[in-house]
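Today's session is about reading a structure prediction critically. Students often jump straight to the picture, but the first step is always the sequence itself: look for stretches that repeat, for charged clusters, for runs of hydrophobic residues. Only then move on to the predicted structure, which in these notes is written as discrete structure tokens rather than atom positions. Here is the chain we will use throughout the hour.
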Amino acid sequence: MTGMERVPMGPPWSVDLIADLHAGVLPPEVAAQLRPRVEADPEAREVLQALDATLADLEALPSIPMPDHVAARIDAALAAEARPVAPVVSLDEARKKRNRRLGLGGGVLVAAAAAFGIVFAVSPGGNQANTPPAAQDASPTNTNVSAEPPLAVKESELGSAVGDVLKAQNYGPLETQDRLSGCLEGGGIASTSKPLGISPITLDGKNAVMAVLPAGLGQYRLVVLDPSTCGPDKPEGVLANTTIGQR
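Below is the predicted structure for this chain, in token form.
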């Protein structure tokens, strides 16, 4: 929110708004007016208490060593960042310097530039020196950008992934909340609210999507789905389903 922020009306308030209030990301003047109203509402106060309990559970988790492959990628990125970068030179300035060195006039430079373009339009080893230069696509669509690999999780250690998944709202191959709801329905899991966190992972090497769902005061439900098989009436698409936290 920017400018003259308005305090959202309620109750009820959305879980997202309460989470933003709990995280301290709302403008101070909005938070100051909203917090007493939220704390006065029993349902909203229960969500705040659940968020407090969730943070306490995460802080109590044992420290997890960084996987070797992640450490290696970080080291490689830092090394690449430390490499010296060639200075950026203006194209016009480069042409002026070349003009001064060669003593060429403007018309000669244009002709030389055209010839230079033709040479580079011919494939290496080719003899088609008179072939007009091919149109160059300056768009970056052909650039290969390697995506971050999904988080690797073992079924016996689902709790260790909670912190990372809570930071994400990435449906991955499920794409939408509706698709997630259908997959949960197939596993007999009743949930109409947006997940607290969701992210693609690999479960014991198998591609999957993990969702963290609210499960009552101080608890949350961890559900891992196979995006290739899950859906309504397809319980086999639920790879893992467990509840953790204080009872």
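Discussion point for the tutorial: Residues 148-245 form one domain.
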